[in-house]
Amino acid sequence: MSTQRQGRDWSTLVLDIYVVVFFVYLFAPLLVMSLAAFNAYEYPSVTQWRGWTLQWFGELARDDRILQGVVNSLIVALGVILVALPLGLSGAFILTRLRGRYNNLLYAILVSPLLIPGIVLGISTLIFWGRVDVPGGLFLTVMAQGSFIAAYSMLLFMARLQRQDRGLEEAALDLGASSFFMFRRITVPFLMPTILTAAVIAFLQSIENYNTTVFAIGGDWTLVTEIGSRFRFGLSPVINVIGVIFVVFTVIAASVYVLQKERERKRKLAR
Amino acid sequence: MHELLRSYGRTLTGVFITLTAFWMLIMILLPQAFMIEHSLWWIDRDDQLGMRIDRAYSDMGLLEFDLGQADTPEGKADIQERIDGLKADIAAMEAEETAPPKHYGFDNYTKMSALHFEIFLKSIGYSLAVTILALIVCYPIAFTIAKLSTPNKAALLMLGLIVPYAINELLRVYAWLMILDYQGVINSLLAWLGLVSFEDKSWVPFLEYSGSVFVALIYAYVLFMIFPIYNTVETLDRNQLEASEDLGAGVIRTHLRVVIPHAKPGIAVGCIMTFMLSVGSYSVPQIMTRGKSGDWFSQLIYRQFFESQNWNSGAAYSFSLVLVCLGFILIMMKVFKVGIRDIAK
């Protein structure tokens, strides 16, 4: 018994060390990237240290292409939310409420954009709309991103709808509510938390997206495609500043999210 | 259909069906179909055509001159006939020049050059390696967080995973560019140790090796392996682990017989996502190679579209990628015996 316990201690220790090493691996590169944002050397570097500076933050604020990129990213993200949520919700209703022979096939088609490479989504959208003479741009980006982000929202809505107590809807209808009234007063409120989650996820997915966007964006640009093109021309610590901003935002948002979950869990335990 | 109609009425049901149909047709199926169609034809441009048209015009000039010089009616008729023939030829050639003939066939696939095919295989090979390595690295992490940690510690560790996961892929890869650059972190370390020197440029050119793309691919997509595995392992009842231990199974046996069978869908999803993202990644090779080392398949595709303007072969390359991913998904479904519903959750 004691040898077994000892063996377990050993393996726990090894695992703990492993986890620590893994997290160092995850975070050290981000630290390197962030640090270079404060280096007064014009090529991004942490090894050629020329002293601390905030000049690159100022330069970012004067960089019109990047600022316009942020605006374009926001436009696209808003478009994607408006497109993906209704599509995802409709797909979820049909898949959860209709039990037919083709249910699995429909499901496979609708989730397929999640399973094929992002560049292919961009390319197929570009070719398809090219036939009706719509060139690459913000609209095509919304279409290309929407095809897979809608699938994400659909999966979220399906999970929620499967937990729904259909009795409430039935009761409302039996009591004479019109189906539209019932939908507005029972179904939508029930789905509201998921609608918000889906909107946040759609927003983040859209802002982040590069591989699909780079094919569909045409002559326009988003923040991320602009960053991508800077790797070819004009790499400067301004990109690192964007990195720092991303890191700070993400840490704050993720902390809030985890704390929220933690509080929910404790509340459930207390009950 | 009846159930939908009864609950939501005609209008809402109609809206649901219309929107789903729009999504399915306009955003998924038709774009794919058009891409496939595009990959099945090519335009045959004859490089010599312009020159041949020029020569025909100069021949005609000569003939017209001859026509003026000819003195017998038979000679005139003969020359006139040749001029008419030449005119018809020119018209045909000019028609071909403005609307070159379109051929259907599999040439866009079969005519992939040896170099491109090699790159295709290289990208697949590296992506498989990324997938396997990510699985080996991630499984212990996912298991530790899901089953061996206290809830508070697990929450903290999850936070530690979400943060890098949520940061833009480009920026994460960029971090590795800085580490592996000529005067990057590793080379500076080596210089400090006296192994290389910046003065005579004897640094290790990591960025010129395909290995640097490999390293960055793992870093970029490793987390797509952790979350699906974590989600399935988390639902495993702790009692099963204890039961397995009480029955005398060692750590490895417990994993092989209890945890892994339970986590199968998660492992399958993790592998599918990691492979698909790696093989289709444009961002990682673009940043890591910066034109210094050879192209990856995704970069070839990009070039077909935006540099050589050859959309037809670009579409063929792109569809080849779809087929590879489809094949990988089917193999995973077979190996792990999971259905499509288990995969996309």
TrEMBL record, chain A:
Protein name: ABC transporter permease
Ranges that cross the membrane: 12-38, 74-95, 107-130, 136-157, 188-207, 238-259
InterPro entries reported in the protein's UniProt record: Bact_Polyamine_Transport, MetI-like, MetI-like_sf
Matches recorded under Pfam families: BPD_transp_1 (PF00528)
Organism for this UniProt entry: Marivibrio halodurans
GO biological process, one term: transmembrane transport
Main location: membrane
Keyword terms: Cell membrane, Membrane, Transmembrane, Transmembrane helix, Transport
PROSITE patterns xref list: ABC_TM1 (PS50928)
Automatic annotation (TrEMBL), chain B:
GO terms (BP aspect): transmembrane transport
ABC transmembrane type-1 domain ranges (all copies): 120-332
Matching Gene3D superfamilies: MetI-like (1.10.3720.10)
Family annotation (SUPFAM superfamilies): MetI-like
CDD domains, alphabetized: TM_PBP2 (cd06261)
This protein's GO CC annotations: plasma membrane
Lineage: superkingdom: Bacteria
Keywords: Cell membrane, Membrane, Transmembrane, Transmembrane helix, Transport
Topological category with respect to the lipid bilayer: Multi-pass membrane protein
Subcellular location: Cell membrane
PANTHER family per record: INNER MEMBRANE ABC TRANSPORTER PERMEASE PROTEIN YDCU-RELATED (PTHR42929:SF1), INNER MEMBRANE ABC TRANSPORTER PERMEASE PROTEIN YDCU-RELATED-RELATED (PTHR42929)
Protein family according to the UniProt entry: Belongs to the binding-protein-dependent transport system permease family. CysTW subfamily.
Protein name: ABC transporter permease
